Amino acid sequence: MYLDEESISVLKALCDSFGPAGFERETASIVKGEASKYADHVFTDKLGSVIFVKKGSSDRPRVLIAGHIDEVGFVVSGIDKDTGFLSFDPLGGWFDQTLLSQRVLVRTRKGDLTGVIAAKPPHILTPEERDKVVKMSDMFIDIGVSSREEAEALGVRIGDPIIPWSPFTLINGGRAAIGKAFDDRIGAFIALEVVKRFKMEVTDHPNTVYGAATVQEEVGLRGASTVAHVVDPDVAIVAEVDIAGDIPDVKPSVAPAKLGRGPTIVTYDNSMIPNQLFKEFVINVAEECGIPYQLSHARGGTDAGRIHISRAGCPSIVVGVPTRHIHTHTSMVNLSDLANAVKLVYEVVKRLDQKAVDSFTSF
Fold first, then answer.
1. Which residue in 61, 155, 264, 306 could disulfide with 357, CB within 3.0 to 4.6 Å?
2. CATH top class, domain 82-160
């Protein structure tokens, strides 16, 4: 299983697009345009999530494949009167140590501005300050101006969104990629690719597939709530990144996933214990189809945390793509893992007829 140049181009467009939590319109527009090529129906909910439908031979069960499109970012919280430096608040979770000297884009009403996250230079720090970790609250964004008036003339206002600047780049002979927003444009990409495969391969799937690009996951799984209400799924697959623990000083018991070993099937996280029969179903499909996979667990949560308790409940599972360095400017993913995640979700959906879905909740 591999990803062709067209698919890589779509992935690049998604990841490079501007879309922190609450400001996802640009990314949502890309999803809508791509989904319109293959889906039978594309629409949005009132929070901004994009939903695309591929009809099969039966209206039910409704199979939801969800991936969120918001990325971690920032928002302007103030403009210094004397320097024009921007203070900022986080949109989503950041580890402060990864931020200094990184470039960002500030989106204003007059256009995008390039800036750099900075703090006091080391040359003028006291010995006590040198031994301390610089906190986000002590950092600022320098956009190259010298006063608040200059910054405001460029269009900057409190509340303007900010994203990392980190272009999508293939490395290691095209076998891996680095860039921003892999969490979780990769999941939305998987949903698009699966719907595309059903369209291109004319597979007579025994269900109706609902792909969803959800919004505001990084600030509280908000889009998942509205999407689950609108779709009313019978079963759900949340496509996500998974923390790759194959870096120094990380024990497998903390983060077992490794790059290049296949997608993960998440056995539990802080927001959801998956339906156990559905989990075994996915494992059996992977083994039947010869798709490499890893069993994983996570300390965070995903959109599945909201979807699985929607209405009367919805059997759900998380399929992850091992990813290094998430919630930083530059994440890394192995493209074979991503391709196999697409294949796994596709093969699972092909088998989700009403009998199979009913079996997940029968006693």
1. 61
2. mainly beta
In this predicted model, what pLDDT tens digit does every residue of 196-229 receive, in sequence order? Answer: 999 998 778 999 999 999 999 999 999 999 999 9
DSSP, res 257: B
Q: How far apart are CA 77 and CA 85, in angstroms?
A: 11
The span from the CA of 224 to the CA of 66, in Å, is 8
d(CA 225, CA 304): 10
Model pLDDT for residues 252-295, shown as the tens digit of each residue: 888 889 999 999 999 999 999 999 999 999 999 999 999 999 99
Query: What is the reported pTM?
Result: 0.95
Active-site annotation, residues: 217
- Among 53, 19, 362, 52, which Cα is nearest to 182's? 19
Query: Taking a C-beta distance cutoff of 8 angstroms, is the pair 70, 220 a contact?
Result: no
* Residue 167, both tokens: 């272009």
Place of tokens 């140049």: 5
Q: Give the other-Cβ count within 10 Å of 120's Cβ.
A: 13
Q: Where are the domains of the chain?
A: 5-71+168-359, 82-160
- CATH architecture for residues 5-71+168-359: 3-Layer(aba) Sandwich (3.40)
Q: Which amino acid is at 234?
A: D
Q: H or E stretch including 266?
A: strand 264-266
